[in-house]
Amino acid sequence: MPDEAQLPTRTPMRCPICDGALDDAQIRDLGGVTADLVWQLHAGRCSEHGWFQTEVVSRPPREIFAVDRPFGVVRRLIIDGTEVFSFPTVWNDLPPAARRQRVDPLDPRFWQVRERRGTN
Ligand SMILES: [Zn+2]
Questions:
Q1: Cβ–Cβ contacts within 10 Å for residue 120, how many?
Q2: What pLDDT score does 85 carry?
């Protein structure tokens, strides 16, 4: 029987570069000023691309950041010769009216990163 308190840490976040599953997922609950406010930091490591992190405040995250370590500082990535500091999510690209809807902030559909446009 699964014990709820023993469930492994799960995050909807995936590597924004290769879409691979993240290892060593860590979630830091920052608590909320109200009981129904979800406020969490999610971090996870791609074996190839390093640590990533995002913040959830009642809504799905709008950006995923590359960090030097879990809950660390943002690191700069160079992808195809371009500096990348963050990865906007599908949620970020929704029109404002759609972002006002009440959704599950941990719904992985909204956590997908926007497809990067190549330079070709
Ligand atoms: Zn990766």
A1: 4
A2: 85
Per the structure, the count of domains in the chain is 1
User: What is the C-alpha separation between 25 and 14, in angstroms, rounded?
Assistant: 10
Q: Considering the domain boundaries, does residue 70 fall inside one?
A: yes
Condensed to tens digits (0 to 9), the pLDDT of residues 51-67 reads 999 999 999 999 999 99
Give the residue among 82, 91, 83 at the shortest CA–CA distance from 64. 91
Q: How far is the CA of 20 from the centre of ligand 1 (A)?
A: 5
Establish if 117 belongs to a structural domain: no
Is residue 90 in a domain? Answer: yes
For 72-88, the pLDDT digits (tens) are 999 999 988 999 989 99
> 32 C-alpha to center of ligand 1: Å?
31
> Distance, CA 85 to ligand 1 centroid (Å)?
15
Q: Measure 21 CA to ligand 1 centroid, in angstroms.
A: 8
15 pLDDT more than 60:
yes
Query: How far apart (Å, rounded) are the C-alpha atoms in residues 58 and 38?
Result: 5
Q: What's the average model confidence in pLDDT over 27-45?
A: 86
